[in-house]
Amino acid sequence: MTCKGILGVDVGGTNIKAALVFGRKIERRTKILSMAHAGIRRSIEQLKSVIEPFRQEICCIGIGIAGIIDSKNGVVIFSPNLKGWNNVPLTEYLHSEFNVPIRVLNDVNAICLGEWKYGAAQGCDNVFLFTLGTGVGGAAICEGRLLFGANGFAGEFGHTTVNPKGPKCICGHYGHLERYVGAEYIVARAKRKMKRQKSSLTRQDALTPEIIAREARQGDAVARQTFAEVGYYIGVGVANILALFDPEIVVISGGIARAGKLLFAPVRDTARRLVLGAEHRRYKIVPARLGDDAGILGAALFAQSRGKPTEIS
């Protein structure tokens, strides 16, 4: 396909970001605040306004959106970030306006594709990536192909069970990984400890995982214990992923992953202790490299795919 460039779009609950992409090179960007709760019509208008300035420079568009996506048909089945988005034929709506090929996929799948092709997992055929933030998302590439599953639910790492008798998750079930390592639960864990131990965290006006990580690096016992426990639970989840998928590499993305050794040491230690045949496996557990660009690059890459939505050129 001869073209000037590909537009990668990342639709979030806070921002809609787009960039003109040539291979792995981003030439030009734009970002607007998302009116996620204003309804489908307003959100579509916003998407069109983001795409419009690039109209004459693109030959196709790739869009990453959080939620359950029917990538084959370009339908957003459900998105937790966009009010009223249920069974929305997004590519149909946009194609009538821009008349170029448009492909839609889950946002974590887009991040995974970006890191696989251009980032931390470059050169690997079997990859699992998960994002750590408010929620916990996941995506897998198996034998060089993005894994969707029969219903588009593949990779829901945050809603794997690590303790059947554990606390209730926001989804209504119990003991899910997200309930132990999502951002608000990391903060809650630290606050519980602060009631029993002295901590420099008490001097903070508002706690975030990033602040807890900073205080942990400076030696605060509560902060260090918090990350050791969070790392343990992530390690339990990673051990399950290693057993199921046998990936060459597990990539951890999201702001919390920037905690570095504080997080990765207990993750790696726990996974090694729990996974079957650890001494015979070759795998790495690493942080993502591309930051916010991963989703845009991955969406642009997906826009170029041919045939089945798992096939990436």
Automatic annotation (TrEMBL):
This is Glucokinase. Coiled coil: none annotated. It comes from the Bacteria. The lineage of its organism: Bacteria, Bacteria division WOR-3. InterPro entries: ATPase_NBD, ROK, ROK_cs. Belongs to the ROK (NagC/XylR) family.
